[in-house]
Recover the amino acids of this structure.
């Protein structure tokens, strides 16, 4: 655990698997993470958080109304 907490990690490539792996490394508790990706971010990629947030809000509203 101590070695991981003191580690500096380079993550290269942010496809679906790369993003998930990076999230898990960060949650694992490393010293620092550097992200490298040569592809441009698409607008559709940034909308997923908003869609997930909207779905969560809808779910909460539905659960409250029951």
């Amino acid at each position: 655990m101590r070695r991981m907490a003191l580690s500096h990690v380079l993550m290269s490539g942010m496809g679906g698997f790369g993003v998930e792996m990076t999230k898990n490394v960060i949650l694992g508790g490393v010293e620092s993470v550097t992200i490298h990706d040569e592809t441009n971010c698409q607008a559709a990629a940034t909308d997923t958080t908003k869609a997930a947030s909207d779905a969560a809000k809808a779910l909460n509203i539905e659960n409250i109304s029951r």
